[in-house]
């Protein structure tokens, strides 16, 4: 079921507040100073385009650079929560141990 239009898009207030603390898009930011997005259900807004953020996967943070086609999607769509394991062969035997 889709979200009603009259409600607008959902964006966590804490993630929007982190945007104001960032320098301009042209400046380099160390990895430790990148804003962390914990709310995977929030919608990516147009004000995030060109910025680099870290999105939580439930286990670790994934570095993500926002581009224009990402606007309107959820943050969680860009940070996979599950990893695929190979079936058969030498690699799978080593991983099972």
Topology:
Layout lengths: L12 H8 L15 E2 L14 E5 L4 E5 L23 H8 L1
Walk me through what this model shows.
The chain is of the alpha+beta class. It has a single domain, classed as 30s Ribosomal Protein S19, Chain A, CATH 3.30.860.10. The chain contains two helices and three strands. The protein has helices spanning 13-20, 89-96; strands spanning 36-37, 52-56, 61-65. It has a three-stranded mixed sheet with strand order 1-2-3, with no helix packed on it. It is globular.
Pattern of helices and strands: HEEEH
**Beta-strand content estimate:** 5-15%
> Would you identify the CATH architecture?
2-Layer Sandwich
Question: What's the alpha carbon Rg, rounded to whole Å?
Answer: 17 Å
Mean pLDDT: 82
Spans with pLDDT under 50 lasting ≥5 residues?
none
Question: What's the name of the CATH homologous superfamily?
Answer: Ribosomal protein S19/S15
What is the name of the CATH class? Alpha Beta
Per the principal axes of the C-alpha atoms, what is the gross shape?
Answer: globular
Task: Write out key terms for the chains shown.
97 residues; alpha+beta; 30s Ribosomal Protein S19, Chain A; 2 helices
Summarize, please.
The chain is of the alpha+beta class and 97 residues long.
